[in-house]
Amino acid sequence: MKGRYFRYAWRWVTDGSEQSYSESCAVVSVIDGDCVLSTPLKTMVVPPPMCAYKLRCYTQANHLAFSHGYECNDCFVVLEDGSIVFLLANAGEFVKVDEDKKCEVQVEGITNGFRLKSAIPEMFGPYRIEWDIGGRISCDPLSLYHWMWISRSCLLAVGHIDNIVALLKVDIAHNKNGTSLQGSVLTYLEDAVHTISLGEDRTFACVQFSNGSCSKVSFEDGSVSFWPAGDELQLQFPRPCHRVAICKVLGETRVLGLSDRFQLFVDDYVVCENCTSFIVHGKFLLLTTHTHVLRCLLLDFDLPQVLEGRNLHAAEDSPRQLERGSLLVTSVVADGRVVLQMPRGNLETIYPRPLMLDALCEYLDRLEYGQAFELMKVHRINFNFLCDHNALAFLNNLQEFVLQVGEPSDINLFLTELTNEDVCTSMYASAYRSRSLKVFKYDGPKVNVICDSVCKVLEELDKDKYFLSILTCHAKKVVPELDKALLRIKALKDSAVTNKVTADDALKYLLYLVDTSDLFNIALGTYNFDLVLMVAEKSQKDPKEYVPFLNELNQLEVNYRHYKIDMHLARYERALQNVSLCGPEHFDECISLIKSQRLYTKALYLFQEGSDQYKAVWEAYGDYLFQKKHFEESGIVFQRSGKLEKALTAFELALNWNLVLTMACQLKYDDAKLCGLAKRVADALVLSRRHKEAAHIYEQFLNDQEEVVRILADAHLWEEALSKIHSYKKSDLFDPFVGGSS
Known about the structure:
This protein is of the alpha+beta class.
């Protein structure tokens, strides 16, 4: 009895297009008998057995593999009879064949009311492989496996030739007679192949054998070499891994492997003991765990720290909770989307914040502001991120930003959300980890700088189209420039030129941005009653509230009317300027305003020097300083206002004896009054321990030599006292001096 024994080892594999390219549509395909069900998850998410389109074959489909690079959405299917069918978005040089046995692509779901949102690939084939090998190739079912599409013109597969494991190459050739497939041996392998993974540059592959050891196969010459791993000659996983991927960590090529015991290896180092699935997403490693969380680890930051012995739980990647049993299916680099499958089969799409911010950073670095804005608008990312990521680049490319965003309503959304906060270091600090922070110092408040810059660009491009956006720039500043916004609206209303935006619409929009009462007051502050009435009408105010008030103001003299308006709006500095122009009859109100609001320094130079109003303002300022006990300053102010008596009193309290005696001379004090003043000041200086100055006054102004010596002796200024005795040539002063010192 003759028979043959076949042993098949099955493992779960998700057949999908490569995620590393922005061109990837995240196509995932499932083999269902004689059909291949495909769905581009970038544009639509439907779980199998539903799909976007399917390839119906004339026989069973056994294998499926996707291309790489810019053609990553193309795939080929290996049928049960060994022939190959290609599904191509771009046919290139492929030529269709005429055969009785045909396959066809069928679009699904359109008849159920759905619109087709994805491009449907074109089918080419089936093609037969012509083998050119020295031995006998096995023709048993599933004898060729681990199919790969390494380039546009070459396929790879693992097979057996004379019972020896071989890596086979299938070249795709195009000529005038059509497309042909030519098979040959690339190299022979030492053991059964467990997995095969394509390198990043598609010039080599990592082959994992059944014992977990790994070798590197070069596609150029078919050479096989050990895959190095640290001090070991050859990388060998502690356990064979059913899922293997190749990535770069800090510029070094690393092999990721997931075993059937949920151990995730980086080379031969275990980084996670409870990993259920993983995928490489750009510069991130995504993995799910038995604790039902999604981890987003930066390949060049988190992973090196884990490899250096740091616990995975300490990584700052903000783990995201998932439904129990969720597994990764694919991801979309373009917008940070991740698709997971639940245990019951349904698919769910999530947008982890680190991946989304990384996608936004890529758009912003390429100055693709339109794409970034749309992504932020859909996912409600704070629009400050547009300028906070790289403020200098944003300010230098504002015109490009406006042109790409285009719609004034979208620009208004950006402007209204502006704050002086840096959201990269606050709101998104935990997720903003894929870029080094660029410190940028604005020339003033951030909101003001951006609003001024945007306003300038909008006026240069099309100030009519972006009229509402220009109003927003004025309204959003730290100190809103609502008066400028209102004057623009008034100019628009008075203009005879037809604009895309009417004055009424512009005013309604401005009322939406700011409080009605605030805008009414700002309009009142422009002193333009036409503008005030225009705002009042649109604000739905009761005419009884403002018409009598406006009529009363309209009857006043212009400067006094402006003063009353400023007082109503509590704009006291402007009110002071206006009331100062109203003449002497309103000077009492001016002085009252100066005193009540302490506007002394603002009022000092509003009046002609030497006038009565000028002196009154300076005197009022002196009184204020005197009350605050700033005696010397108040004395100077009194002196300037001509109030010498008040100045003398202030200088006396300040103990500025020079200015006191100067004021006394200007006031023409007689000798007796001057001596009394000098004695009073000298005694005050003694009490303040300023003995030398007191002695000087007694010597120069009072001519009391004995008191001079006594004051110096009381202060223990012995040498000065003796010097005075000798200079006076009065030895009789020596005895009291010695007695006082004993």
